[in-house]
Amino acid sequence: MDHPESGTVVVTASGDGTYTQRVTTAGHTLLVDEPVAVGGADAGPNPYELLLASLGSCTAITLRMYADRKGIPLTRATVRLRHDRVHAEDCARCETERGLLSRITREIELEGDLDDDQRARLMLIADKCPVHRTLSSEIVIETRGT
């Protein structure tokens, strides 16, 4: 299979398993699937795990870049994420007041000889990663058929 141009992702059925999808980027190929419990073959992470992986990896990379640029002695950032659905009325910071909404919980563990100011600054920078900004802003998805 030819790889698409940089910045394009192609998703197509892998031919193995009911829900297994092959994701191809300019330089990588991976499988995405659903767990066995919902009829998949568990041949790869599920779509929500990929979404969390995107946010977590972007957060860690952003922290690494910032620490390197500012000379902050960050040894490692570990990001743990979870997605769930909550009732809107249980969310104090949400504009939506009714129905269910998605919530991503992100825990960041910072390792290194960091002082309190450096830790606080890194936590602020975490919210500035590009994927966080994308997920926190209005998103327009244009769908076309061929």
From TrEMBL:
UniProt xrefs under InterPro entries: KH_dom-like_a/b, OsmC/Ohr_fam, OsmC/Ohrsf
Alphabetized Pfam families for the sequence: OsmC
SUPFAM superfamilies, A to Z: OsmC-like (SSF82784)
Protein name stated in the entry: Osmotically inducible protein C
Species whose genome carries this gene: Amycolatopsis rifamycinica
